[in-house]
Amino acid sequence: MQDKLQGRVAIVTGGARGIGFGIAERLARDGAHVVIADVIDDTAQAAQRLAEQGRSAQAWRLDVSQEREIGEFVRGVERQHGRIDILVNNAGISPKNNGTKFLVEETSTENWSRVIAVNLTGPFLLCRECIPVMRRQGHGRIVNITSQSARTRPEATSGHYAASKTGLMGLSRALAGEVGNGGITVNCVAPGVIETPMLSTFSDERRAHLASRIPMGAMGAPADIAAAVAFLASDDARYITGTTIDVNGGMFMT
Ligand SMILES: NC(=O)c1ccc[n+]([C@@H]2O[C@H](COP(=O)([O-])OP(=O)(O)OC[C@H]3O[C@@H](n4cnc5c(N)ncnc54)[C@H](O)[C@@H]3O)[C@@H](O)[C@H]2O)c1
């Protein structure tokens, strides 16, 4: 629906490509003004693509692992728009070791710390900075993009990645318990295998193996994740908090 998010201001981290761009595109289509926050050079072009579709969007260069940048970013968005309704913590990294996962015994402390900084500390900092703005409005929607790796034994991803995404689920539940009385919900969407640049290092053999394990017979698309995020960001989901929606074609079921 075109106007479900009319008047809402949304932040999508890692929104320049892949799942994040799919989410930005969907929230903008539903009527939100979308701030695409990303580190890559293509960020401005991503916002431009949405503007060409007649949507309301802007680009912001942000490295979610940099605490100082996050404070300036959130204050800047609030100054420009007067509100922040939706925060989608989507930016994430999944370093690979020649196309396969890093075993724990092969993982350097630096590699571990980098993944935790981007995938877990970044979302924590963004939540911490956005919550006071959402409390003042009496309204907020936080959606954290976790992973199937946080739901069951990770097959294709490394221990640091699984730890970061499982931590993000724990953070989401804790925060949901703290902010529900302020009209703020906090939920997760856990993608299965979604066709994006993050999968570009996977061999054809691994991709075929993964697809063969999906009951629906194929990898998902960014739009499949975006649909779940748009629902959680809408008024329809006003009484849903502290939960995770699995979007994985049936690859993992609880
Ligand atoms: N693709 C999948 O199958 C899959 C499965 C489960 C979970 N996920 C999760 O979905 C999210 C999006 O994944 P994707 O497949 O679209 O990945 P992607 O690599 O295609 O896109 C990730 C985006 O995040 C941005 N980013 C990375 N580090 C950043 C930083 N420090 N600050 C700001 N932006 C940063 C990148 O520039 C990129 O635009 C990630 O959190 C990922 O862990 C993806």
Please explain how this structure is put together:
- 43% of the residues lie in helices and 15% in strands.
- The chain has 254 residues and is of the alpha/beta class.
- Strands 3-2-1-4-5-6-7 form a seven-stranded parallel beta sheet, with helices on both faces.
- Helix 4 (109-137) packs parallel to helix 5.
- The protein is globular, with a radius of gyration of 17 Å.
- The chain starts with 8 loop residues before the first strand and ends in a 7-residue tail after the last strand.
- The model has no long low-confidence stretch (mean pLDDT 96).
- It binds nicotinamide-adenine-dinucleotide (NAD).
Short recap of the structure:
This protein is about 45% helix and about 15% strand. It is built from seven helices and seven strands.
Blueprint (SSEs and pairs):
Blueprint: E1 9-13, H1 18-29, E2 33-38, H2 43-52, E3 57-61, H3 67-81, E4 86-89, H4 109-137, E5 140-145, H5 159-179, E6 184-191, H6 204-212, H7 222-233, E7 244-247
Parallel strand pairs: 1-2, 1-4, 2-3, 4-5, 5-6, 6-7
